What does this fold into?
Amino acid sequence: GPFVYDNVMWPPFPGLCPDSEKKFKEKQDMECRDTDVYLCSFPKAGTNWTHEVLSMLMSQSTSYNLWVKQKGLLEMCDPIDSVTKMPSPRLLMTHMPYRYLPSQLQNGKGKIVYVQRNPKDLFVSLYNFEKGKSAIEKHLSWEEFFEKTVIKDEGALYGGWYEYTKEWEKQLGHDNILQLYYEDMKKDLTGNILKIADFIETSCSKELAETIADKCSFDNLKANRIDPTSFLTDGGKSTLFRKGQVGDWKNWFTVAQNEIFDRNYKDVMKGTTLNFLYEL
Ligand code: PPS
It folds into this structure.
């Protein structure tokens, strides 16, 4: 099950344990390349969606799963050789908090695409995801999950959403970080694809962006994208592509829970300038 290292709770992935000290150091010391693209996000923010977009843009093709077959999360990769030997350009993804990223990347070598999603929908997505995963075995009721994880981040992986998000916010001004929002992508995927292409310095016509947007719609991804998390379910069933909507939180949060959430958010996230859209 999950384990604690450096006062943070981590999933038991082969790139993180055993020998955590060595494996975290290997990542921190990893050589970066100018052409590297790191997709960084808290789980359930839209990682798989953005990954498929990046995969198509970087390969200049509209075939599915080109990169997910090659590499999943950086945390899954063991030994690290599988990453250090990848040909350029590399597309890597990780949920690790900023301070655990390779030092060279933190110093500007390589690019980061950072995806965020409004925390109400993100927590609902996380709750449903964990419920569907026998390997996670945290079958809490929504009320219990709300009290523990949504409000207190208790037992949350990767340091929990609040700490993760606050740490990342401090870094968002760097030239090598592109900040994206799930809700913006829902509103205008083509526009966001063009923005990503520009940031990673890949050519992309409006026509190609429109084709990628169609290929990466929720329904098309659900039908065609490999679910790299299916290994956590009995029989490898995919539970990743659930609803793909903005505002599903309203079907889960009671009015009272929403008030508790807003009050807690204001307090815990004091001083941040993040602007989440909670409905479309
Ligand atoms: S993780 O932790 O990396 O495995 O999960 P992640 O990919 O970050 O997030 C999963 C949620 O993203 C939704 N999703 C999409 N939404 C809109 N459009 C597209 N194309 C799309 N693809 C995936 C997915 O359905 C999960 O959200 P919920 O709300 O649970 O449906």
The beta strands are 3-5, 8-10, 37-41, 91-94, 111-116, 177-181.
